Amino acid sequence: MAAILDIMISMIMGSMLLLNILGAQNVVAESSSMYNGDVLVQEMLITQVQYMEGEIRNMGYGVPPTTASIISARDTAVTFLMDVLRDGTIDTVTYYCGNPSELTGTQNDMDRYIHRVVKYSSGSAEETNTGVVTYFRFRYLTLTGDTLATPVTALNLGAIRDLEISLEVQNPFAQYRPQSMVKSGQRNALYSSSFWQQTRLVSQNFRR
After folding, report:
1. Does residue 14 belong to any structural domain of this protein?
2. Contact 44, 52 (CB under 8 A)
3. Domain hosting residue 132, numbered range
4. Percentage of the chain with pLDDT > 70?
5. How many structural domains are present in the chain?
6. Does residue 99 form part of some domain?
7. Closest by Cα among 30, 38, 35 to 194
């Protein structure tokens, strides 16, 4: 009888140990996948930010001093003037955040495009998608650091001196989690994410 009891206790303890091992393996696998995902989204973020940051820093290039560089400013879009082709003519550039419905084919239901639209002085237009984000916002600041309400009115466009851009990129491929690991209020899938914010993106062509 004692031998049977010992066997039963050993089986119970062995089962508990096996469950702990399996749980630890899930945690390790999840952590490893998230780390690899973090590296991927950081690379995606850098690629998207570099070009946009460089162009916005040069907004107003070639624009006469008496003309405001920014002609429209909203929380998810900005339109400004600059000589894109460096040919002495003024073009119009718009960056805006698209709708998640444009990317219904991705696993992440928060994915959306950043659109770049250029209307050239010749009358032709060009639109490209500069990347995929899950969050994209502009904030506009005056010379004294005050935040302008969006959309910025026509009377206040000339008061913009600094831009703050915030964006988040998430891995488009989900890592689905066992239901036992999903806590209340959490998503049943994990997406590695990277957040970037440029708090003082000043165009060198703004009038001071």
Report:
1. no
2. no
3. 33-201
4. 65
5. 1
6. yes
7. 38
| 43-81 confidence digits (pLDDT tens) | 667 777 778 888 888 899 999 888 889 999 999 999 999
DSSP assignment letter at 147 = B
Per-residue pLDDT of 104-163, as tens digits, reads 777 788 889 999 999 999 999 999 988 888 899 999 999 888 999 999 999 999 889 888
Say if 140 falls within a structural domain: yes
Rounded CA gap, 79 and 173, in Å? 32
For residue 94, what pLDDT is reported?
97
Taking each continuous run of H as one helix and of E as one strand, the counts in the chain are 1, 10
Name the residue among 135, 179, 124 with its Cα closest to residue 45. 135
Residue 175 lies in a domain: yes
Tokens at 32, concatenated? 């490893």
Beta strands in 33-75 (DSSP E): 70-73
Whether 160 and 152 have beta carbons less than 8 Å apart is answered as yes
The alpha carbon torsion through 91, 161, 168, 186 (nearest 10 deg) reads -140
